[in-house]
Specification:
This protein has 306 residues and is α/β, with parallel strands linked by helices. 43% of the residues lie in helices and 23% in strands. It starts with 10 loop residues before the first helix and ends with a helix.
């Protein structure tokens, strides 16, 4: 088999020829490539050896290309163009992976879902910084509609036509009692058992509160009322109140995983009841998502929740 010197052609040799033609001077071409002039000369010599032909003619006023030199130069130009194209695309992709995202979120996403997602997200996209402010679902929706926030996560589907709303995660509201409650050993209870039991609930405007009230309206009689003894402003407060024995509650499964494991709280099924909902990402229809925002939202949609 005959020797194929073309296999020995390197990108740096072609780059040397490209800059030599552009600068028409060995010294200027060497400076362009941050090389010494002897190093550049060696690259041209090695390229000529690989091709097996003389590529340039030195003249008093610079250099000219031989026929073979012109052929090689055409490909050197194309390769240089491809390299610049790759460079531009890479830099643009890196720009997409940087920026800040200000998020308004209701308590369950803000406290129990997003922090876990952000840990992995930050390791994959360290230049995208995410800041979260916590309010209830109604307040989050108002802030997005009034453009005080660009992106929100809430626990109920918004009715406003100004809003894009996409479901991102599932949730289940479970009936829970403290580990010392008289029902803690029960396998299930009935809806009638709930009527006289003291309840602690979220405040009005909370997605959790609204989902529960809507479920009760649709699945119980009009005279069914919970015995609410306290309205509290966060799921953390609800949990502490239950553990202290103030009352029982319906609460997001995401909020009490740790307390269930520690036996501080106990989930008890209510016969025939399944209270489920979606969490939604929201933004106005006039808001065009930035590339780094799209990256984050795509990441959220594909995140696997425990």
């Amino acid at each position: 088999m005959s020797y194929d010197g073309f296999k020995n052609i390197t990108l740096q040799q072609l780059e040397a020829l490209f800059h030599l033609v552009a600068e028409r001077s060995f010294s200027r071409a060497a400076k362009k490539m941050f090389l010494t002039q002897p190093s550049l000369t060696k690259h041209i010599k090695n390229l000529e050896d690989a091709v097996g032909a003389k590529l340039i003619n030195r003249q008093n006023r610079g250099i000219t290309l031989t026929l073979q030199g012109r052929l090689i130069y055409e490909y050197a130009q194309k390769i240089a163009g491809l390299r610049e194209g790759v460079k531009e695309k890479i830099l643009k992709s890196m720009e997409k992976e940087s920026g800040t995202i200000d998020i308004i979120a209701s308590t369950i996403p803000a406290n129990y879902i997003l922090p876990g997602i952000l840990g992995d997200f930050n390791r994959n996209y360290p230049k995208i910084k995410v800041y979260i402010k916590t309010v209830n679902s109604e307040e989050a929706l108002d802030m997005v509609i009034n453009r005080h926030a660009e992106i929100g996560f809430i626990g109920k589907k918004p009715l406003s036509r100004k809003i894009n709303a996409e479901p991102v995660w599932k949730d289940r509201l479970v009936f829970a009692v403290s580990g010392t409650h008289r029902w803690s050993g029960k396998s299930s209870i009935t809806a009638k058992d709930l009527i006289e039991e003291p309840f602690v609930t979220r405040e009005k405007g909370s997605g959790t509160r609204e989902i529960l009230e809507n479920y009760l309206k649709e699945n119980t009689g009009t005279d069914f009322r919970l015995n609410i003894v306290a309205e509290l402003g966060s799921s953390e407060a609800i949990k502490e109140a239950m553990i202290a024995g103030l009352g029982v509650s319906f609460i997001s499964i995401h909020a009490i995983r740790r307390e269930l494991e520690q036996k501080l709280l106990v989930e008890i099924p209510v016969s025939g009841w399944v209270v489920e909902r979606n969490f939604y990402v929201i933004y106005t229809k006039q808001h065009k998502l930035m590339p780094h925002q799209e990256i984050f939202l795509d990441y959220c949609k594909t995140a696997l929740l425990d």
